[in-house]
UniProtKB/TrEMBL annotation:
UniProt-recorded Gene Ontology molecular function terms: 2-phosphosulfolactate phosphatase activity; magnesium ion binding; sulfopyruvate decarboxylase activity
Swiss-Prot/TrEMBL cofactor(s): Mg(2+)
Presence of keyword Plastid: no
Organism: Lacihabitans soyangensis
Name under which the protein is recorded: Probable 2-phosphosulfolactate phosphatase
Enzyme Commission numbers on file: 3.1.3.71
Length: 235
């Protein structure tokens, strides 16, 4: 039977064999929520890069560039890390280069060995789950976390995926069980469950409350970003 597992931080990815796995990268607050939103609003492609320098190089080549560090926009770039910034009609058909503190780094770490890398958020949860139901490979949900540490919101998303696929996949590892049980506890009031989490406090300190509520909504969009080469596109 196929296995589904959860990696709670990209710093733990080396402990997982992913050469027969589809890796679902999630960074709920806010990189993967931005990516899903951008594609839903007509963005053509997104190149995720690990460093600000790589993003600046692509910006100089003509890409719209989004750069975030410590939950704030990096000076000199076009877009920040709010999903509402990706609803701009000027981005329709556009190509975006993106770097974030955690999410794009996680994609960079996963892409070398994974069978396929897809992007997941609560905003496209059903699209992720429906795609994985028909795949012959194992699944690893990679939580972007925060600077190497696990975080609660990404763990909840991982748990939602495991919970939805527990009849199709074997749930063997404690990290997957932990994520699933945490989600089952939290699913009826995720905002309340996350009220004291570190990243919510961080975002609230920056006055970004509307992003928090938006990113916790289920299935606003039926889009599935998939990495092809170095570029995310719609599956």
């Amino acid at each position: 039977m196929k296995n589904i597992d959860v990696c709670l931080s990209p710093d733990l990815l080396h402990l997982h064999k992913i050469n027969n796995s589809i890796v679902v990268v999630t960074d709920i607050f806010r990189a993967t929520s931005c990516m899903v939103t951008g594609f839903a609003y007509g963005v053509k492609s997104i190149i995720p890069v690990a460093s600000v320098e790589e993003c600046k190089t692509l910006q100089n080549m003509g890409y719209v560039a989004a750069a975030e560090r410590d939950a704030q926009k990096v000076e000199g770039f076009d877009l920040d890390n709010s999903p509402f910034s990706y609803m701009d009609e000027r981005l329709i058909g556009g190509k975006i280069a993106m770097t974030t503190t955690n999410g794009t780094l996680s994609i960079s770490k996963a892409k070398t060995d994974a069978v396929k890398v897809i992007v997941g958020a609560f905003l496209n949860l059903a699209a992720v789950v429906n795609h994985l139901k028909n795949q012959p490979y194992d699944v690893l949900v990679l939580c972007a976390g925060w600077k190497g540490r696990p975080n609660l919101e990404d763990t909840l998303f991982a748990g939602a995926v495991v919970d939805a696929l527990k009849d199709e996949y074997f749930v063997a590892e404690d990290s997957a069980i932990l994520a699933m049980r945490t989600y089952q506890q939290a699913k009826n009031d995720m905002l309340g469950y996350l009220a004291n989490s570190s990243h919510i406090r961080r975002l609230q300190g920056l006055g970004i409350n509307k992003d928090i509520s938006y990113c916790l909504q289920n299935d606003l969009y039926d889009v599935l970003p998939v990495l092809r080469g170095n570029e995310l596109v719609i599956h």
